[in-house]
Amino acid sequence: xxxxxxxxxxxxxxxxxxxxxxxxxxxxxxxxxxxxxxxxxxxxxxxxxxxxxxxxxxxxxxxxxxxxxxxxxxxxxxxxxxxxxxxxxxxxxxxxxxxxxxxxxxxxxxxxxxxxxxxxxxxxxxxxxxxxxxxxxxxxxxxxxxxxxxxxxxxxxxxxxxxxxxxxxxxxxxxxxxxxxxxxx
Length: 185
What we know:
The structure is a single chain. This protein has one domain (11-173): Nucleotide cyclase, GGDEF domain (Alpha-Beta Plaits), CATH 3.30.70. 36% of the residues lie in helices and 29% in strands. The protein has helices at residues 25-31, 35-55, 77-97, 131-138, 148-153, 156-159, and strands at residues 11-21, 59-64, 67-73, 105-118, 125-129, 144-146, 162-165, 170-173. Strands 1, 2, 3, 4, 5, 6, 7 and 8 form an eight-stranded mixed beta sheet that branches.
């Protein structure tokens, strides 16, 4: 039985939480009159990124415009981080092939979360709630940021992808610029 098999009943698990976005959709939608083309582009991007996530053992929980929320079981934390390096690299390459330079931003935390079905009767979707979700969402990033908790769980070879950034302590991709602080939403 896989991690994802029985999540129709609310359950608590340790999980890696990842938010990713590219802040592309609003500008693209404004300059593109064919809204079906806009939807096709969004669908193509999430087909690519969702496939990368699923192949590594994670799950794209939901999309929000040009951003997404994905989860990996905590025992696949290195696989999740490496998959999101692919999401970032392949997502940016996908947009570049379309003639649209885009930078994909990733923010990650790990911790206890609750999975459950939410929404209208007969139209519920899987969702995830918990402090790790909120912390990942608010983590400042100009490229790829992981919380100190994620960093401590990584294997030494995966840790080499990051450098320490303070204050507050978080780890960002070795080639990223220092992120600006995000205001709480």
